[in-house]
Automatic annotation (TrEMBL), chain A:
The modification Phosphohistidine is found at H48. Pfam families: CheW, H-kinase_dim, HATPase_c, Hpt. CDD domains: CheA_reg, HATPase_CheA-like, HPT. Residues 552-684 form the CheW-like domain. Residues 1-105 form the HPt domain. It comes from Pseudomonas zanjanensis. Residues 283-303 are annotated as: Disordered. This is Chemotaxis protein CheA. Keywords: ATP-binding, Chemotaxis, Kinase, Nucleotide-binding, Phosphoprotein, Transferase, Two-component regulatory system. GO terms for biological process: chemotaxis. The lineage of its organism: Bacteria, Pseudomonadati, Pseudomonadota, Gammaproteobacteria, Pseudomonadales. Its EC number is 2.7.13.3. Residues 343-550 form the Histidine kinase domain. GO terms for cellular component: cytoplasm. SMART domains: CheW, H-kinase_dim, HATPase_c, HPT.
UniProtKB/TrEMBL annotation, chain B:
This is Chemotaxis protein CheW. It comes from Pseudomonas zanjanensis. The lineage of its organism: Bacteria, Pseudomonadati, Pseudomonadota, Gammaproteobacteria, Pseudomonadales. Residues 17-162 form the CheW-like domain. InterPro entries: CheW, CheW-like_dom_sf, CheW-lke_dom. One of its GO terms (cellular component) is cytosol. Signal peptide: none annotated. One of its GO terms (biological process) is chemotaxis.
Length: 700, 178
């Protein structure tokens, strides 16, 4: 049972995080359009759901804090509080705080660090201002302000008959009772065992118990009823007020304690609010039902029919599929050597299916980048306020899908680039107006597919990079030798060098020169590249190019002597046979005439120091990466192969030009070429013969 | 618990016999503690990794895992081992500074035997004269009246050191102009 509850709690935590995400999005939506009732409704529902489920798990800190937030939201919903910037700000902070509380709950048994507690108190105070019904009412909701039930607690009789399936539905009756206690005091409780069957008919997973509870609380019928929202469907619940027995307790401890420690403070507000709630229309079951309906239909409409699967299970599956691919390739190879036609046919249909399974399995891991992009709305909003700039974030290509791991790991570098663009790229409103541009700055986040990789673009319409200043700084730091004349592109990319910063002032956000190199390193770790384009006065575009997936690539097998290498198929453009005569001529020149185009050649046999004479007939594989194009000269072309990437390990960390390895159907290991690294390495090596650029090459 | 562990350790160091795998490299015999050895396989099907220092022979497929093979002779600064019918790869679990274990294959000429050598038969390493780096030697064991060099596996197969060597290797930097 406890395991089940743990799992349920995990689900709650995951869902609560999603709810908070949705809440944040709606808040930002509300900020742009203050009259948006749907957004208010969505925010309220998110907070309400979190509170409800948190109560179920007895997560008291979340319940008490969320309750205050929910109350303010309720007032917002019925129009007694107006939407203003301050309110949005405090609600955003509150949602951050709720996230923190949930994270604490997720770590089980952890407590909030003191600064967070401090923040909670501050937030509560601000929220209270919005919560106070009117200036006439005292800040502490004193009992006498409520004419109907002034702080008087009543005695309720609650009769509970839990449904048999309550355990199977992941509910624990005990937690409801625990949550009930937050509303008042359980005076007496009787466990009803009359539904217990005979021992032989007993099913350990069924719940046969009922409870009769005498409950003393100041809460309204609706509020008590709400406690059982989650089990109402299959339980019999009867809540009756025992009016005569109402003990006029007047001042309960909770209401009158002076609000000194933060815990007490929130508790006080919570109780006070319940009074207020009661003053208004008590929330009746029917109303809750209509409340709830849109939530379910909403979320259903949004995420279709999703199955939540543990990421580990998915990874395991993909690993297995990877092995399956290798095994089936091995089987095909064997079948071919057997010269048995039916067998070959059978293996080829198997490998066809395996490929489909592989594609399907890989698609499981693909998630749209949009979620990550949307997170940045908040960042842009906060940072632009902090900087006093008016910046608009435009998002496109949010539906572009890429590997989950990549999405997770690209968040930080993107965040960094965005902050940089906002801090350094986009000018202040005055400077923009002076330059004849609209005062509002624009940031554009875009994602699209391009030749087997995904490209993420961060574009701003700011001042652009100061080419001369970067060059000056670079020369100062010895990154570029005096007198050298690198291209604009090279100069711009210098900002990715470690410790490079041209900012005159170090701000809170950026300018310390730490970061761009980290950004580049993180992207390189994902087997991606980053480059930058800038036009003075018009803005900067940073382009991140990432592989679609990390685990498996389509490879093109080539042979050099006895060794086999894999070239990522996305980069292969075409293959040409190099006849003996051509071979000799181009060997001398180092390039090939490809339909009138100069194609630089890389003799992999020489480059990799393979011994032995080259094959008489050689082949050229034309590869392209971004703007670089080259011909790799190899002995044999061995065809396409689905390649499961196996990392080479730390020992080969310094190895450039080879990104990993894979196991062929024959059981031999083949190395995967890292074409971009290979080409840049060769370009650098050639530059070394050029004395003016010698220093630059070394500096890199 | 702690007490038991300490007694065990001292016992191991002082009198208990430990098992060692002995193998030949050229005409010399070496030994390594058996505890870090996972298996011994026949040499074969090796894929050469280019642009690596001479002591990294290449990688092999060990039941689906790609395992690097280190030529022990080259690691000691001698010429590469000549491959013969009796060449073997000893798979060893090596640890690096960040605590991650990685399997590494050790190419040796011949595997001889598993011996029990009492700690009393192992002498401290000489400070020089063994022709291999002193920190590679854990001790000198006496077996049948001959000295056998017991290797300090963690030092010999230090991934951190070897990857640094790979980085600084002239082989790795040497790029032929096409």
């Amino acid at each position: 049972m406890s395991i089940n509850l743990d799992q349920a709690q995990q689900t709650f935590i995951v869902e609560a995080r999603e709810q908070l995400q949705a809440m944040e999005e709606s808040l930002l939506q509300l900020e742009t359009d203050p009259g948006d009732d749907d957004a208010i409704g969505a925010i309220f529902r998110a907070a309400h759901t979190i509170k409800g489920s948190a109560g179920l798990f007895g997560l008291e800190p979340i319940v008490s804090f969320t309750h205050i937030v929910e109350d303010v939201l309720d007032r917002l919903r019925n129009g007694s509080v107006e939407v203003d910037a301050g309110l949005i700000a405090v609600l955003l902070k509150s949602s951050d705080h709720m996230l923190e509380l949930i994270n604490v709950a997720a770590n089980q048994g952890g407590t909030l660090p003191p600064p967070a507690l401090q923040r909670e108190v501050e937030l509560c105070q601000i929220l209270q201002e919005y919560q106070a019904p009117s200036p006439a009412a005292a800040p502490t909701p004193a009992p006498e302000t409520n004419p109907s039930e002034p702080g008087e607690t009543r005695l309720w009789h609650i009769s509970l008959r839990f449904g048999q399936d309550v355990f199977r539905n992941g509910m624990d009756p005990l937690s409801f009772l625990r949550y009930l206690q937050t509303l008042g005091e359980i005076v007496d409780i009787a466990t009803l065992t009359d539904a217990l069957p005979a021992a032989e008919a007993w099913d350990a997973e069924s719940c046969y118990l009922g409870f009769d509870i005498a409950f003393r609380s100041a809460a309204s019928h609706g509020a008590i009823n709400e406690v059982f929202d989650f089990v109402r469907e299959d339980c019999e619940i009867d809540i009756v007020a025992i009016d005569d027995a109402a003990a006029p307790q007047g001042n309960t401890g909770l209401v009158t304690t002076s609000p000194e420690p933060p815990e007490e403070n929130t508790a006080l507000v919570a109780t006070g609010e319940l009074l207020g709630d009661q003053r208004k229309t008590p929330r009746m079951p029917a109303q809750i039902a209509t409340d709830k309906q849109p939530v379910t239909s909403d979320s259903k409409g949004k995420d279709g029919t999703y199955v939540r699967v543990n990421a580990d299970k998915l990874d395991e599956l993909i690993n297995l599929v990877g092995e399956l691919v290798i095994a089936s390739a091995g089987a095909s190879l064997l079948a071919r050597t057997c010269h048995n036609d039916p067998l070959q046919e059978a293996t080829s249909s198997v490998s066809g299916l395996v490929e489909e399974i592989l594609d399907g399995a890989l698609r499981l891991r693909m998630i749209p980048i949009g979620e990550t992009f949307n997170r940045f709305r908040r960042v842009v909003r906060d940072v632009s306020q902090e900087l006093g700039k008016d910046i608009d974030l435009i998002i496109s290509g949010a539906e572009t899908e890429l590997d989950k791991t990549v999405v997770e790991k690209i968040g930080d570098p993107l965040m960094h680039l965005l902050r940089n663009a906002m801090d350094h790229g986009i000018e202040t409103a005055e400077a923009r107006l002076a330059a004849g541009k609209p005062a509002k700055g624009h940031l554009h986040l875009n994602a699209y597919h391009d030749s087997g990789s995904i490209v993420l673009e961060i574009a701003d319409d700011g001042a652009g990079l100061n080419r001369d200043r970067i060059l000056e700084k670079a020369q100062e730091r010895g990154l570029v030798p005096q007198g050298a004349s690198p291209t604009d592109q090279e100069i711009y990319n210098l900002i990715f060098e470690p410790g490079f910063s041209t900012a005159q002032a170090v701000t809170n956000l950026s300018g310390r020169g730490v970061g761009m190199d980290v950004v580049k390193r993180n992207i390189t770790l994902l087997r991606g590249t980053v480059d930058l384009d800038s036009q003075t006065g018009k803005g900067t575009v940073v382009r991140i190019r990432l592989p679609l997936t990390l685990a498996i690539i389509n490879g093109f097998l080539v042979g050099i002597g006895q060794s086999t290498y894999v070239i990522p198929l996305d980069m292969v453009q075409e293959c040409i046979e190099l006849s003996e005569d051509d071979g000799l001529a181009s060997r001398e020149q180092g390039y090939l005439d490809l339909r009138g185009e100069v194609l630089p050649l890389v003799y992999l046999r020489d480059h990799f120091n393979h011994e032995g004479p080259p094959a008489r007939r050689q082949n050229v594989v034309v590869v392209r990466y971004a703007e670089l194009k080259a011909g790799l000269v190899v002995d044999d072309l061995l065809g396409e192969f689905q390649t499961v990437i196996k990392p080479l390990g730390k020992l080969f960390g310094a190895l450039r030009g080879i990104s990993g390895s894979t196991i062929l159907g024959s059981g031999a290991v083949a190395l995967i070429l890292d074409v971009p690294a290979l080409l840049t390495q060769i370009a650098q090596a050639e530059n070394r013969f050029n004395p003016t650029q010698l220093q630059q090459a070394n500096a890199r | 618990m702690g007490a038991i562990a300490t007694t065990r350790q001292t016992a191991l160091a002082v009198e208990e016999e430990a098992q060692y795998l002995t193998f030949m490299l050229g005409t010399e015999m070496f030994a390594i503690g058996i505890l870090c050895i996972k298996e011994i396989i026949e040499y074969g099907n090796l894929t050469v990794v280019p642009m690596m220092p001479a002591f990294v022979r290449g990688v092999i497929n060990l039941r689906g895992a790609v395992v690097p093979v280190v030529d022990l002779s080259a690691r000691f600064g001698r010429p590469n081992s000549a491959i013969s019918r009796r060449s073997c790869v000893v798979i060893i679990e090596a640890s690096s500074a960040d605590g991650l274990a990685q399997d590494i294959g050790l190419l040796v000429d011949t595997v001889s035997a598993v011996l029990e050598i009492p700690a009393s038969q192992i002498e401290p390493p000489p400070s020089f004269g063994a022709k291999i780096r002193a920190d590679f030697i854990s001790g000198m064991a006496k077996v049948d009246g001959k000295f056998v060099i017991v290797l300090e596996v963690d030092r010999v197969l230090s991934i951190d050191e070897m990857s640094q060597l790979a980085e600084a290797s002239p082989n790795a930097l040497e790029v032929d102009a096409p």
